[in-house]
Amino acid sequence: MDTNSTSSSIIVRSYQPSDLSACHELFTEAHRGYNNPMSYINSHLQGDMADIEKNYLQIPGGHWWVAVSTDDNRIVGQVAALPMHLGDSEYYSRAPEEQRDQTCELLRMGVKQDVQRLGVGKKLISTLINFARENGYRQIHVTTLTCMDKANGFYQRNGF
């Protein structure tokens, strides 16, 4: 993708089963960039990401999106949402009872390095926020590793 492109050449759509390997690659690339061990990466690839359709799309209040470059039909980003009780169960158990079912968790966010800072992440976040509103969520919970300084900065710049 031309690095002078903007997010206007990006569409965000729901995950399709044919996207699985690209989503795995994107997740691996993102986490290797933070020097996360392969055991951490593989636990997610073999866990919830082994069957994205079952673990996200078939869950009421859950979803998975991909950002696709219209220039080359390449998946350049992804993000997912799950109801809090299926996401961060520790946070869910500590949350006030009245907030538990009104909170979803933002998960598996990633944007290819060559298109970062071009609005792809913002498009993905905007899609997730609209989904959250439409599904009655009043809060979105995000958890990152402390070593993920770029991700933490991105979330802070976007109101998280």
Automatic annotation (TrEMBL):
Query: Which domain of life does this protein belong to?
Result: Eukaryota
PROSITE patterns from the UniProt entry:
GNAT
Q: What is an example of a GO molecular function annotated in this UniProt entry? A: N-acetyltransferase activity
What is the annotated signal peptide range for this record? none
Provide this UniProt record's keywords sorted from A to Z.
Transferase
Q: Which InterPro entries does the record match to this protein?
A: Acyl_CoA_acyltransferase, GNAT_dom, NAT_camello-type
Q: Where is the N-acetyltransferase domain?
A: 10-160
Do the record's keywords include Hydrolase? Answer: no
- PANTHER family, per this entry? GNAT FAMILY N-ACETYLTRANSFERASE, LD18367P
Identification of the protein by name: N-acetyltransferase domain-containing protein
Give the source species. Answer: Adineta steineri
